[in-house]
Design a protein that fits this description.
Order of helices and strands of chain B: EEHEEEEHEHHHHHEHEEHEHEHEHHHH
Number of helices of chain A: 20
CATH class of the largest domain in chain A: Alpha Beta
CATH superfamily of the largest domain in chain A: FAD/NAD(P)-binding domain
Oligomer: heterodimer
Number of strands of chain A: 24
Strand content of chain A: 15-25%
CATH topology of the largest domain in chain A: FAD/NAD(P)-binding domain
Helix content of chain A: 25-40%
Distance between the termini of chain B: 15 Å
Shape of chain B: flat
Number of strands of chain B: 13
Largest sheet of chain A: 6 strands, antiparallel
CATH architecture of the largest domain in chain A: 3-Layer(bba) Sandwich
Helix content of chain B: 40-55%
Structural class of chain A: alpha+beta
Largest sheet of chain B: 7 strands, mixed
Distance between the termini of chain A: 54 Å
């Protein structure tokens, strides 16, 4: 059986959904494979979308025309803006999701998307042409050839295969063949997945879902380098067995800020559910320490590397021995269920230890565990094999997105899915890839880090990873990216027009504040006295007043008689742009020098072995990463500034030589 | 990747021995063509760091009896294959051997080219490379000392330690943003405030040293001023020990400024002789006077030459007005003639050092030199100071870093959210990194290309 499509997406998690929707919306005939249609956009771990820096990713994805922001706006049950006491760069939106509603709504969107079909099947092989030398061509030979290892290795080392191999389709475990122009791998944590707690090992994906056991071998046969990562999830408990009176209640924000720039602010103001905060204690830590030798992470049963930034509770206890308590958030999994998620308390300790450990906390004395905490191990690729477009450097038209690239988190996966989908489509149409750089978006930071750094653990987005974060705020994601999304073709005309109107209003209001002089009237000085701000003797502009530490755009309302009525989003944007103008300008200067280095391209055919002054390690790293420009080269670990200078000199000299030869 | 270069590693002089250095991939091939054993046999250059007895041949004829050492890459100064030939001294012989090396395929090196290669091959860091380049061009012993200290990496070390502190503060701040549960920002601003202030003080000291550094490296900019015929050009010649300026008794002979470098004990004077200052209608002279005024404004030291045999007049008033706030030495010249102006009288008009002299008779010149030495060495330049900034690029980067750190202080004082500090902290970190080549900038490469005359 042979079927043809433009694009094949393997996996229907958060990456796969965005990739498939983007391709279909760009007009490509797209098929998405999943091992279980009931698990589309499943949230097998935490029941929320967003959070510190992840909220930024969702906003950016939305500005570009992705789905996640819209989907959470439809299905959230609580919403908060985090870090409000800090600077505007680190304000982050986070919403609790009703997990079932979230998957159901996303599934509905996929099912009703024109040009997209869903197929439940396990993909077992990638079809790549030309295949290894011993093999035949696909359609004549239904049995896919398995060449010997020696043949393959010599083939991979030869120059001729470079820029010549491309993916042409996939085969499923049933033997069905699907041909396509592009394939996007979004396999999440399903490749050779193993779930582990104590000495119990289950050969399944999350939630007991079937794992994918064939595709890794096919990838290995094609020379793709595979790594093994690990992550984990906490137990789910019955809310009826918790004593919330002993916990700190966490309420949602009023008013609620939507994730999506397309969502109507008023339509989503609604009743919210509560979350709770509790702490572990000495007794909890004592139980963990006493049983640490039974942890599969410590006794060697788990070989994969786990995320340092999302550690299990046993990791935290062992790593911070001086800390007497760790905070645990108790969050509902949805409106449909009594299950509660224990954020911050993932574990792979044996069942009996888990039970004892959870019961040691205040309010948890009689807790009933519905599902055990567990660790999950899975295959992923070394993302240094990818270009920034998320296409494989050595296999054309093959893309990878999400946890297969070594990232962690729904949001990280979704944005990669979107970018891979966009770029697969552009590749088919012969257009340049859309690459967001580190100064444009967290998405750019994420992808750049994945492809230039050696990640030895699941990569989680963090605000500290973004050098230019004051420019990459969640509030201005549309200002940064809406036009790019529109040009790509994923932002509808009406959304784009309302964005242009918003942008125009922001610009007008900023100009007004800069041009409005406030005289030293008794009224104004009375206001300033009230705000503990120095009185003025002569006129001053509103924008200068706004920059004073004790004043802000909102508080100046009292003495600003000509202020137009503006939406919350516009007021927020104007306030930040004026108040932090100096910082923003300095950050923009940093971006200028970043761009200069980033614009120094490295020719694709460069032979690093030829540059004898490069240290051996740098030569090896640069040869294996093949960075696209000097900036990327400088971010590769093991490449020193001195190496970069040598490289710059080499490029300059060969540039001069070329110019002379012309 | 580079061709093979050769140069004299010692001064071209009639000293006892001289060293010729050849560096590059072909260095050993080239040397083996003309450096052979006493019997004309090939020398086995494959043994690195081994001193050999040999002869330099011009074709068939032995030219000199030498010692030769080969340094196999990368264990050499440049990181390339290097051969050093220790031959007998003497201008003629050294030139001859150098030309033999060139005949055999080496190219005469440009100034600083060995150092350039050492840098490009990663043998030395940027500050060391710049110090070597300063060393090559340095004009006096003080500059030599500063360059040598920089060469040993002391600038690198201090800048690196400041960078480390800045990075630690930033890292903590970032950790607290991403993991507020485990890293608290309570009291962080106060700690940061004092840390940043300490670094600011250290950087300001470095910048202050740069003024001394320039004096050390480029010499003390010394303007010689006075009325026409007071003996300015004669003083210049006396200091130079040769007739550099045209000296006549016709007033207004020096219509432009003349510049010379002269050694003054351990220091170097960058002398600027100026046109005599008087009221004049001659347009050429007016221009000269304007230049003199400009020279004074830029000078580190002004020597005001006064003809003690004629009374003070309007022109002197004009000059004295120019000298307000300037470090000035008054030379009461022509003490061999009947004196009209005394030390006490001139000091009524201007409070400065005064020296009696007769340039014609060569009296008072030593006193002048000693006074300059005293002013600049004992009081002004702490030449035992470990690190002196002698490089303008370094100074500008230090000033940028200081600006950024001052912004951090302002941010802390005005209580903006802590996450905003990192912008200026990282700016300072980067500027400092540019000094020692630990940050990448395309400007830096341009600088290197310019400095080492590369890519031509």
């Amino acid at each position: 059986m042979v079927e043809r499509h433009d694009v094949i997406v393997i996996g229907a998690g958060h990456a796969g959904c965005e990739a498939a929707l983007a391709c279909a919306r760009l007009g490509f005939d797209t098929i998405i494979f999943t091992v279980s249609v009931d698990s589309i956009a499943l949230m097998p771990c935490n029941p929320n979308i967003g959070g510190t820096s992840k909220g930024h990713l969702v906003r950016e994805l939305d500005a570009l025309g992705g789905e996640m922001g819209k989907n959470i706006d439809k299905t959230f049950i609580q919403s908060r803006m985090l870090n409000k006491s800090k600077g505007p760069a680190v304000h982050s939106l986070r919403a609790q999701a009703d997990k079932q509603a979230y998957t159901r709504e996303m599934r509905k969107t996929l099912e009703n998307q024109k040009g997209l079909v869903i197929r439940q099947a396990e993909v077992s092989e990638l079809l790549i042409e030309p295949n290894c030398p011993a093999g035949g061509s696909l359609c004549q030979n239904s049995e896919w050839p398995k060449p010997t290892l020696i043949d393959r290795n010599s083939f991979f080392d030869s120059d001729e295969r470079k820029n010549k191999r491309k993916v042409i389709g996939v085969k499923t475990t049933s033997g069905a063949v699907y041909l396509s122009k592009a394939v996007i791998l979004c396999t999440g944590v399903y490749l050779n997945a193993r779930c582990i707690y104590g000495d119990v090992v289950e050969q399944t994906g999350p939630n007991g879902l079937r794992s994918a056991t064939h595709l890794t071998n096919s990838m290995l046969r094609e020379g793709i380098k595979i790594m093994r990562f690990k992550t984990g999830t906490p137990a789910r408990v019955d809310r009826r067995t918790l004593d919330f009176s002993k916990m700190v209640i966490q309420k949602g924000d009023v008013p609620i800020i939507p994730f999506s720039f397309s969502t109507d602010f008023h339509s989503i103001q609604k009743e919210q559910v509560d979350c709770y905060l509790v702490y572990t204690n000495k007794k909890t830590h004592e139980i963990i320490r006493r049983n640490i030798d039974r942890s599969p992470l410590y006794n060697g049963n788990i070989k994969g590397t786990g995320p340092r930034y999302c550690p299990s509770i046993e990791d935290k206890v062992m790593r911070f021995p001086d800390k007497e308590k760790h905070q645990i958030f108790v969050e509902p999994e949805g409106l449909y269920t009594n299950e509660m998620y224990l954020s911050g308390m993932s574990s792979s300790l044996p069942e009996d230890v888990q039970s004892e450990m959870y019961r040691s906390m205040e309010g948890f004395e009689n807790v009933h565990i519905v599902r055990n905490a567990y660790a999950i191990e899975y295959d992923c690729i070394n993302a240094s094999q990818l270009k920034r477009s998320l296409e494989f450097k050595d296999i054309e038209f093959l893309f990878a997105a999400g946890q297969i690239n070594g990232s962690s988190g729904y949001e990280e996966a979704a944005v990669q899915g979107l970018m891979a989908g966009i770029n697969a489509g552009r590749k088919i149409r012969g257009l340049d890839a859309v690459i967001l750089d580190r100064s444009q978006a967290y998405i750019g930071v994420l992808i750049d880090d994945l492809v230039t750094k050696e990640n030895h653990e699941p990569y989680r987005m963090m605000t500290s990873r973004a050098e230019y974060r004051l420019l990459l705020r969640q509030d201005n994601a549309d200002i940064r990216l809406r036009k790019i999304g529109y040009d790509i073709g994923l932002v509808p005309e009406c959304d784009y027009n309302s964005f242009l109107e918003k942008k125009n209003q922001i610009e007008k209001e900023i100009i007004r504040l800069k041009n409005t002089h406030i005289g030293a009237s008794p009224l104004v000085n009375a206001f300033l006295r009230k705000m503990n701000s120095a009185e003025i003797e002569s006129g001053i502009t509103l924008s200068d007043l706004c920059k004073r530490p004790e004043l802000n755009y909102e508080s100046l309302h009292e003495i600003d008689n000509s202020r137009p009525k503006l939406s919350y989003q516009i007021r927020e944007e104007v306030g930040i742009e004026i108040k932090y103008e100096g910082y923003i300008n300095r950050q923009k200067q940093q971006v200028d020098s970043f761009r200069k280095i980033e614009s120094k391209k490295i020719p694709e055919g460069i032979n690093y072995q030829e540059i004898s002054n490069l240290r051996l390690e740098a030569r090896q790293k640069l040869s294996s990463f093949r960075p696209e420009n000097i900036g990327m080269a400088s971010r590769i670990s093991g490449v020193s500034p001195a190496d970069i200078n040598v490289l710059l000199v080499y490029l300059e000299k060969s540039g001069i030589k070329q110019a002379r030869n012309k | 990747m580079f061709d093979t270069i050769c140069a004299l590693a010692t001064a071209l002089s009639d000293a006892g021995i001289g060293i010729i250095r050849i560096s590059g991939e072909q260095a050993i091939d080239i040397a083996s063509r003309f450096v052979k054993s006493k019997t004309g046999k090939q020398i086995d250059f494959r043994l690195s760091h081994l001193m050999r007895y040999a002869f330099v041949y011009d074709g068939e004829n032995p030219v000199d009896e030498v010692m030769v050492v080969c340094f196999i890459a990368p264990r050499s100064y440049t990181g390339e294959n290097t051969v050093e030939i220790q031959c007998h001294g003497g201008v003629f012989l050294l030139k001859k051997i150098l030309s033999i090396a060139i005949q055999n395929g080496a190219r005469l090196a440009e100034p600083g080219e060995f150092t350039k290669r050492a840098f490009l091959n990663g043998r030395i860091d940027l500050t060391q490379a710049e110090a070597v380049s300063d060393l090559i061009y340095s004009t006096n012993e003080q500059a030599l000392k500063a360059s040598i200290s920089q060469l040993r990496g002391s600038l690198f070390n201090i800048i690196e330690s400041y960078r480390k502190e800045l990075l630690q503060s930033t890292a903590y701040l970032e950790a607290a943003l991403d993991d507020p549960e485990n890293y608290s920002l309570d009291g962080f601003s106060d700690t940061l405030f004092s840390n940043v202030n300490n670094i600011l003080n250290g950087l300001s000291d470095l910048v202050k040293s740069s003024d001394n550094g320039r004096i050390i490296k480029e010499g003390i900019k010394t303007a010689i001023v006075g009325k026409p015929n007071a003996g300015k050009s004669s003083l210049l010649n006396a200091l130079l020990g040769e007739n550099r300026a045209i000296v006549t008794n016709i007033a207004g002979t020096t219509r432009d400024t003349l510049e010379e470098y002269v050694k003054c004990n351990d220091l170097c004077l960058h002398l600027i002789d100026t046109a005599g200052i008087r009221n004049t209608d001659n347009s050429v002279e007016i221009l000269g006077v304007e230049r003199a005024i400009q020279a004074v404004s830029q000078a580190d030291l002004v020597i005001y030459v006064v003809d003690a045999s004629v009374p003070l007049d309007d022109s002197d008033d004009k000059i004295i007005k120019m000298l307000v706030d300037k470090r000035t030495i008054i030379l009461l010249n022509k003490s061999d003639l009947p004196i009209l102006i005394t030390k006490e009288e001139i000091q009524k008009h201007i409070n400065s050092y005064v020296i009696d002299a007769s340039v014609k008779e060569m009296t008072g010149i030593e006193d002048l030199k000693n006074l300059i030495q005293e002013i600049f060495m004992k009081k002004e330049i702490d030449y035992n100071h470990e690190i002196v900034i002698t490089n303008l690029r370094h100074k500008n980067l230090l000033l940028n870093a200081i600006d950024s750190l001052k912004s951090v202080i302002t941010s802390i004082e005005s209580k903006v959210p802590e996450d905003l500090y990192t912008i200026d902290l990282m700016n300072a970190y980067r500027e400092l990194g540019l000094i020692i080549g630990e940050e990448i900038s395309d400007d830096l490469i341009n600088e290197i290309f310019r400095k080492f005359c590369m890519g031509k």
